[in-house]
Structure formats: C-alpha cells, structure tokens
Design goal:
With 234 residues, the protein is of the alpha/beta class. The chain folds into two domains: 105 residues, 3-Layer(aba) Sandwich (Rossmann fold); 110 residues, Rossmann fold (3-Layer(aba) Sandwich). A four-stranded parallel sheet has the order 2-1-3-4, sandwiched between helices. The chain has a four-stranded parallel sheet with strand order 6-5-7-8, sandwiched between helices. The longest helix has 17 residues. It is 46% helix and 14% strand.
Amino acid sequence: MKNKPKIGLIGGMGPFASASFLQILLKKAAIRGAKNGDEFPEILLNSVPVTDFISDTEALPQAEKILTERVMFLSNAGCQKIAMICNTGHILFPKLSTVSGGKMISLIESVKNRVMNLRFKRVGLLATKTTVRSKLYSKAFQNTDVKLILPSQRLLDLSETVIREEIANNNSRAAIEKLIRLTDKFIKNKDLDAVILGCTELPLAFQNHKSDKIIDCLDTLSDSLLIDWMVTKS
C-alpha cells in the first residue's frame, strides 16, 4: 500500500477531544478505502496529562518540557506526521517543530487553509481566552483578505465554561444549547460566512448541531493528516 505514513498524535488537552479525534481519523480512513485492519493507518496517540497551561500561562515552561519530550518520543517511534490535538497548545508549535523528526501538521494552518479554500471573507472565532489573547488565529489570517471577528466577552466566557465542562466530561445541555443559540446570533449579527470552533472541545459540544457555517477544527485537522493518504489495491 502506498502513501501510508505513520501518524503521531499528541492529545490529552483534553482527553475526550483526543478520543473523538481518533474516531474521526479512522472514519476518514474508511472513506478513503480502508476496510481490513491492516489497511488503516498506523496511529500512535500519546494522551498526555500535561499541566493546565490553557488557563495558566505560567505553566507554559513545564508544559513545553513535557510536550517536547513527547514530540521526540513520537519522532523516535518513526512517525512521519505529527499533530497536536489542541489549539491553545499551538503557542508552543514553533518550538516543538524544531525538535520533530517528522512533519508537524499545524491545526491552526489547517483551519486557515480551509477558510481560504472556501473563499470565506468574514469568519468568527470561538476559542479559549488564552487562544484569543495569544492571537494564534489573528496572526494566521494576517496578510489575507479574511476578516477575523472575535467573540463578545459574554460569548467568550460561555465558550470557556463549555470547554471546561467538556474536558471534565460534564456535559451541561443547558450551557451547550445556550452557546449554540448565541453562536447562531453571532453569525447573523456580524454577517459571518462561518465560525471557527477554535478549541478541540467545542466540536464535542456542537456535534448535534449541523450547519454549513461551522468550521470544525477536528474535522479539518483530520483531512490535513490524510491529505495524500488513500488505500490502493494491488
């Protein structure tokens, strides 16, 4: 079988999003022709109980040390493609890329490329407060004709609440339904082409909300990892 790289995933931030992403990746492989067990890609998922640097950036040095070790571990295991299943973690992406023996696939760049390919001009963002403050997505869309619209403080606070609940697997339907209502209102009031779910927990909250105006970061990253991957029969 051709074009079958070993994929390394750094997850655990949080763990349920990582588990969901693995399922998405396998389902995408099935769509691309995998039927038998030996036809699916080899995937190493390292679910890391890393210090919470999402809300406490003072924990970044310790998180950097742990994640650097994990990138090196996956590289030494022969992973040709490595991805981190966490938007906020991409604060460390430039440093982690320098120690990777495989190709590091950026979740942020994957989302940006999807927005550009869809020719969207006005996109909103839902994410953690740290992701918004660090301007990960704002910087990604610099020098493009895409206007990134940030959420109101109310929407940002609610997003953070839902994200925390998803990390703990404590799914509050009331909070999720409220977030979806406010997101739909955000799209309408700001005349948005779409909204980026810029935290890997948010697709879990929106999984039953089908809309062509939602950009799912997990779905987008899975496509980037399998972009050249297809089962070929001899």
